[in-house]
Design goal:
single chain, 353 residues, mainly alpha, Cytochrome Bc1 Complex, Chain D, domain 2, two-stranded antiparallel ribbon, 15 helices, 39% helix, globular, binds heme C
Length: 353
């Protein structure tokens, strides 16, 4: 083999290598068009918050969160093209609305007060009656309900398929556009709505002297067992709820039987999911039916010991040992307002583009 031939052979070999490499690059780029991209998304955990349990197959990625947000704010999800999830879950009110009961399409009204969407990644059931166990399963209800978005899901899927941008976003986020992935994307966005940056958190976790005297007294009334108010026995922990269902004595006879509608158990009549109190200052009116207009009315309700009901929790009662004074009531309300997290409501990542 002379020198010229050797050079030719080497050139041939390197051509093969180059062609081979080229083909690999091509294959990889084809694969990346079909396979979802998964840019990591890191959830910022405030102090005191445990790591949430995320369902397998719907782990956070930036692509999924971005798609979920776009869907959450898209009015095409309603039959008349006027309502998005955000119509009843407005960020400025900690993702709820100000109506006593929410208005759906064509001004049809439901029977329950819209719920704030806050720290849902840690919730173990959804709706006032806890009727669904996961966020992914929850979304079909408002989407199709006649008094909410009233949307025909098959028609919605056809509309999304015809939209090149959605097609590409779904492909990147989940690999394909289908109903299951629609619910997954919205759930993924909802789990990013984390609120734990209130003045209470500065006081409690960072030991900062940010409370006024009144707020400090309210804090003691809320948490301290000596006053027999027991607020924290239900609204305790990092998210101000113990996730149970309770009857807090709102009525002697309930028009909406709450948890009973799911379990059919007599002992569940008039029981509702204990709501988180984070951002409660922003979420009026209050209770499952929006019947109490202000925090003052709520405190008055508890101070009165509530109405008689066989299922009323023993923790809601008139306090023989400690009668609330007018100042106590003011202090309690002032404490509840320390749970407001302004960062949460103005955060750019939570709001429409
Ligand atoms: C017409 C107003 C309205 C619209 C639109 C609406 N919701 Fe709701 N949402 C409500 C009401 C009312 C409740 C309480 C319902 C119940 O308890 O039966 C609720 C409850 C929820 C809950 C349960 C929260 C918890 O803590 O248990 C979630 C999550 C939620 N909605 C998400 C959504 C999403 C996502 C969309 C869009 C697909 C949406 N909602 C559209 C009014 C609305
Ligand atoms: C036995 C458990 C229990 C105790 C004790 C309790 N709550 Fe509640 N709280 C609930 C339940 C359940 C609801 C929702 C009831 C409903 O919608 O009918 C609620 C609702 C509320 C709401 C309205 C939240 C919203 O989003 O509508 C506020 C505010 C509140 N409670 C504050 C307090 C305060 C302050 C105390 C102490 C004085 C207290 N709670 C004691 C169970 C309890």
């Amino acid at each position: 083999m002379d020198h010229g031939e050797r050079v030719r052979k080497r050139l041939e070999r390197s051509q093969w290598i180059i062609t081979g490499l080229g083909m690999m690059v091509m294959l990889l780029s084809i694969a990346s068009v079909w396979a979802p991209s998964d840019t990591p998304y890191y959830l910022n955990l405030p102090p005191g918050f445990p790591e949430p349990v995320i369902p397998a197959g719907n782990e956070f990625t930036q692509e999924r969160v971005a798609l979920g947000k776009k869907l959450f704010y898209d009015t095409r999800l309603s039959s008349n093209g006027k309502l998005s999830c955000a119509s009843c879950h407005n960020p400025i009110h900690s993702f709820t609305d100000t109506a006593r009961v929410s208005m759906g399409v064509d001004n049809k009204s439901g029977t329950r007060n819209s719920m704030p969407l806050v720290n849902l990644a840690w919730a173990s059931s959804f709706f006032w009656d806890g009727g669904v166990p996961t966020l992914e399963m929850q979304i079909r209800k408002p989407l199709t309900s006649h008094v909410e978005m009233n949307r025909d899901v098959a028609a919605l899927m056809r509309d999304l398929q015809a939209d090149a941008e959605y097609k590409s976003l779904f492909k990147k986020a989940y690999g394909s556009l289908n109903e299951e992935n629609l619910y997954k994307a919205i759930a993924c966005f909802e789990r990013t709505l984390v609120s734990g940056n209130s003045r209470f958190d500065f006081y409690f976790y960072y030991k900062q002297p940010v409370f006024s005297e009144s707020e400090e007294r309210g804090y003691k009334l809320f948490f301290d067992g000596n006053y027999k108010l027991h607020c924290a026995s239900c609204h305790g922990g990092f998210n101000f709820t113990n996730q149970s269902f309770q009857n807090n004595g709102l009525y002697e006879s309930y028009a909406d039987q709450g948890r009973y509608l799911i379990t059919n158990l007599e002992r569940d009549k008039g029981k509702f999911k204990v709501p988180s109190l984070r951002n409660v200052e922003l979420t009026a009116p209050y209770m499952h039916d929006g019947s109490l207009k202000t925090l003052e009315e709520v405190v008055e309700h508890y101070a009165s010991g509530g109405k008689n009901h066989p299922n009323k929790s023993p923790h809601v009662h008139i306090h023989q040992a400690y009668q609330l004074t007018e100042q106590d009531k003011v202090d309690l309300v002032n404490f509840l307002k320390t749970l407001t997290d302004r960062d949460f409501i103005y955060k750019r990542e939570h709001r429409p583009e």
